[in-house]
C-alpha cells in the first residue's frame, strides 16, 4: 500500500513529505475534549525513563499507574537490556507473558528470549491509562531523558524525535501493510513539545520515487495532563509550517524554479486570508529591481518577486507591523564565479530562507496571530549564462543604491537588498530577514546554529526566542571595521570585502545598508542549519530541516503579545 499523505496536496508541488496522524489525549478520558480513544491495537508505547544517582529511574505516568510490584518488574526488564536512562538512549522492550517475564528476568537473558515472547494483554492494558479497549502494546520503547530535574522542552522534542526515528513498521502476516500505531507518554513532560518532536522526527520525504512505500508510523497518540484543544491546534499549525518549508526545500530545482515557485506559494496560501502578489520579469524591470534582475539574468528561467500580506481582523491601528524577507535562490551555481562541483546539488536548498518565511506567514494566518505581517520574497536562479552578471559589473537596486559585484557567488545579498528596501516601504516596526547566506556562518557556528545579527536589542530578543523553540540561534556582532571594508571606488557599496575575515558579519553589514532608519531588524543566517547533508539527529531528518520557521512564528507571537 502506498502511504496517504497527511499533508494537503498543493498544486504545482509534486510531492509532500509524510507526517503521521497526530492526536492528543488527556489521561482523564472522562473530561470534555479529552481527545480520541486510544487505538485498539497499539504497536509501540513510548515511555520516558531517567538517569538517577543510583542508576535507572522510572517516574511519571504511565509508570505511576502501575503497582509497586509492576514498577519493579518493569525496572528489572529495562535493567536487563542495559537501560540507564541517559539522554537519547533508546531501549525496546517486548511485552512478555507473566511466565516468560519471570524466566527472562531471573536469567538476565532477555535478548535471547525476545523472538519467543508473547503479549500479555492483561498486564499491558494497565500500562496505558487512556487505553480502554486496547490489547496493549506489542513493544515498549523507553527513551532516556537524563536526570529528571533537568528536562527541558527541547529535551522532550529531541526525545520524541529520536523515538519516532527508532520505531519500525509492525510485522504483519496478513492484510495490507501499515505503519505503527504509537501511544506516547512523553506528552506528560510537555504536550506540545512531544507532538512537535514526534511529528517532525517521523517526517518522511520520498520525492519523486515511484515504488510503493508504507511509512514506519501511521499514527501517534500523545498522552497529556494538559487541556488538549489549544495545544493541539498550535502544534499542528507549527508542524504543518515546518513540513511545508521542508517540502519546498527538498523539491528539485527543475521542478521548483522562480515562476513555478511563485505559483506554488499562491496555491499554498489559498486556504488562508493571506493575499499574494507576484511581480514577473517585466514588472521587475519597470519598477527597477536591479539586484533580482542582475542575479537572474544568466538563467533561462526569469526571476520573480512574491509579496504576501497577512492583515488580521480586529487589531488596533497602532499594533506593531512586521516585515519578513526570505532569500529565494532556487538554484545557485555561483554564476560566473562558479562554485566547485563537489556537493553543488545541495544548492537546491539556497531558497531555504524564502521557504521559512512563506511557511511562517501561512502559520500566522492559521493561528490568527494578532499582528500585521508582510513578506517579500525574491526568487531567482543564479546561472553562468551568456547574459549573466560579470564580476566587476555595477547593479542599481530598487530604491537607487548601486552595488559593485566583485563575486557573483555572493548573490543572495543582492536580491535581499531589493527586497529589504521594498519591505521597508510598508513602514514596519520590525523586520525579520533570513537566508542561507554565507559559508562563513558554518565556519563560525557549525551546521546547526543560525547566526543572528541586527539591531542589538531585537537581535538578542530573537536569539532568545530561537533558543527557546529549539532552533538554537546565536547572537553575532557587526563590528564597525568590517562594514568599512565594503566601500567601493565605483559604486555606493561592493558585495564582498575582498578578504577572508568575518564573512558572516560582512554580509550582515551589507544588508544593514538597505534597512530603513528606525526599523528594528534581524538577519538570520541559516546557511548550514537549513539543510542537513549528514545523518538524521533528534527530530531533524536528512536534507531539509525547516529552520528557522519556528523562530519566526514564535517571534511574531512574542511581538503580538509584547509589542
UniProtKB/TrEMBL annotation:
The record's listing under Gene3D superfamilies reads: Leucine Aminopeptidase, subunit E, domain 1, Zn peptidases
What GO MF annotations does this protein's record show? manganese ion binding; metalloaminopeptidase activity
Keywords, A to Z, come to: Aminopeptidase, Cytoplasm, Hydrolase, Manganese, Metal-binding, Protease
Tell me the residue numbers annotated for binding Mn(2+) 1.
332, 409, 411
Task: List the active-site residues.
Answer: 339, 413
Record's keyword annotation contains Membrane: no
> Residue limits of the Cytosol aminopeptidase domain?
407-414
Give the co-factor note.
Binds 2 manganese ions per subunit.
Per the record's keyword annotation, is Disulfide bond included, yes or no?
A: no
Q: What GO biological process, any one, is recorded here? A: proteolysis
Which residues bind Mn(2+) 2 per the record? 327, 332, 350, 411
Which is a Pfam family this sequence falls into?
Peptidase_M17
Q: For this protein, what reaction is catalysed?
A: Release of an N-terminal amino acid, Xaa-|-Yaa-, in which Xaa is preferably Leu, but may be other amino acids including Pro although not Arg or Lys, and Yaa may be Pro. Amino acid amides and methyl esters are also readily hydrolyzed, but rates on arylamides are exceedingly low; Release of an N-terminal amino acid, preferentially leucine, but not glutamic or aspartic acids
EC numbers on record: 3.4.11.1, 3.4.11.10
| Chief place of localization | cytoplasm
Q: Which PANTHER family match?
A: CYTOSOL AMINOPEPTIDASE (PTHR11963:SF23), LEUCINE AMINOPEPTIDASE-RELATED (PTHR11963)
- Can you name this protein? Probable cytosol aminopeptidase
Gene that this sequence comes from: pepB
Amino acid at each position: 500500500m502506498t502511504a496517504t499523505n497527511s499533508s494537503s496536496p498543493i498544486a504545482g508541488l509534486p510531492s509532500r513529505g509524510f507526517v503521521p496522524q497526530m492526536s492528543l489525549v488527556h489521561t482523564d478520558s472522562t473530561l470534555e475534549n479529552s481527545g480520541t480513544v486510544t487505538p485498539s491495537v497499539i504497536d509501540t508505547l513510548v515511555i520516558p525513563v531517567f538517569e538517577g544517582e543510583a542508576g535507572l529511574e522510572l517516574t511519571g505516568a504511565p509508570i505511576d499507574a502501575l503497582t509497586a510490584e509492576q514498577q519493579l518488574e518493569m525496572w528489572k526488564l529495562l535493567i536487563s537490556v542495559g537501560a540507564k536512562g541517559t539522554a537519547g538512549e533508546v531501549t525496546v522492550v517486548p511485552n512478555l507473558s507473566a511466565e516468560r517475564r519471570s524466566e527472562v528476568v531471573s536469567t538476565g537473558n532477555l535478548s535471547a528470549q525476545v523472538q519467543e515472547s508473547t503479549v500479555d494483554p492483561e498486564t499491558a492494558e494497565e500500562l496505558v491509562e487512556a487505553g480502554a479497549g486496547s490489547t496493549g502494546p506489542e513493544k515498549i520503547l523507553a527513551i532516556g531523558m537524563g536526570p529528571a530535574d533537568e528536562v527541558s522542552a527541547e529535551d522532550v522534542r529531541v526525545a520524541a524525535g529520536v523515538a519516532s526515528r527508532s520505531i519500525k513498521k509492525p510485522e504483519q502476516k496478513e492484510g495490507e501493510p501499515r505503519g505503527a500505531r504509537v501511544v506516547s507518554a512523553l506528552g506528560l513532560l510537555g504536550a506540545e513539545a512531544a507532538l512537535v518532536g514526534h511529528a517532525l522526527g517521523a517526517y518522511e520525504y520520498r520525492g519523486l520515487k515511484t515504488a510503493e512505500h508504507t511509512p514506519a508510523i501511521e499514527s501517534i497518540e500523545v498522552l497529556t495532563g494538559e487541556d488538549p484543544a489549544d495545544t493541539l491546534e498550535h502544534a499542528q499549525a507549527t508542524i504543518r509550517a515546518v513540513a511545508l518549508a521542508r517540502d519546498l526545500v527538498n523539491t528539485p530545482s527543475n521542478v521548483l524554479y522562480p515562476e513555478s515557485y511563485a505559483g506554488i506559494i499562491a496555491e499554498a496560501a489559498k486556504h488562508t486570508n493571506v493575499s499574494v502578489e507576484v511581480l514577473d520579469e517585466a514588472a521587475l524591470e519597470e519598477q527597477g529591481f536591479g539586484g533580482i534582475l542582475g542575479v537572474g539574468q544568466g538563467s533561462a528561467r526569469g526571476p520573480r518577486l512574491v509579496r504576501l500580506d497577512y492583515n488580521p481582523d480586529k487589531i488596533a491601528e497602532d499594533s506593531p507591523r512586521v516585515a519578513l524577507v526570505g532569500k529565494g535562490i532556487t538554484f545557485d551555481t555561483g554564476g560566473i564565479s562558479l562554485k566547485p562541483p563537489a556537493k553543488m546539488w545541495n544548492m537546491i536548498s539556497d531558497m531555504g530562507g524564502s521557504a521559512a518565511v512563506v511557511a511562517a506567514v501561512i502559520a500566522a494566518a492559521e493561528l490568527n496571530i494578532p499582528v500585521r505581517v508582510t513578506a517579500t520574497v525574491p526568487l531567482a536562479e543564479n546561472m553562468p549564462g551568456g547574459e549573466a552578471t560579470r564580476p566587476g559589473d555595477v547593479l542599481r537596486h530598487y530604491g537607487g543604491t548601486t552595488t559593485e559585484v566583485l563575486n557573483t557567488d555572493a548573490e543572495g545579498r543582492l536580491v535581499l537588498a531589493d527586497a529589504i528596501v521594498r519591505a521597508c516601504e510598508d513602514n514596519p516596526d520590525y523586520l525579520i530577514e533570513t537566508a542561507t547566506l554565507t559559508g562563513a556562518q558554518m565556519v563560525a557556528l557549525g551546521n546547526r546554529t543560525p547566526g543572528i545579527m541586527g539591531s542589538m536589542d531585537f537581535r538578542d530578543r530573537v536569539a532568545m526566542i530561537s533558543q527557546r523553540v529549539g532552533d538554537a540561534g546565536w547572537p553575532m556582532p557587526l563590528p564597525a571595521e568590517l562594514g568599512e571594508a565594503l566601500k567601493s571606488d565605483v559604486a555606493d557599496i561592493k558585495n564582498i570585502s575582498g578578504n577572508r575575515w568575518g564573512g558572516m558579519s560582512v554580509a550582515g553589514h551589507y544588508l544593514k545598508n538597505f534597512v530603513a532608519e528606525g526599523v528594528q531588524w534581524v538577519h538570520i543566517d541559516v546557511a548550514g542549519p537549513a539543510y542537513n547533508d549528514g545523518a538524521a539527529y533528534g527530530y531533524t531528518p536528512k536534507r531539509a530541516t525547516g529552520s528557522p520557521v519556528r523562530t519566526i512564528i514564535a517571534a511574531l507571537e512574542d511581538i503580538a503579545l509584547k509589542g
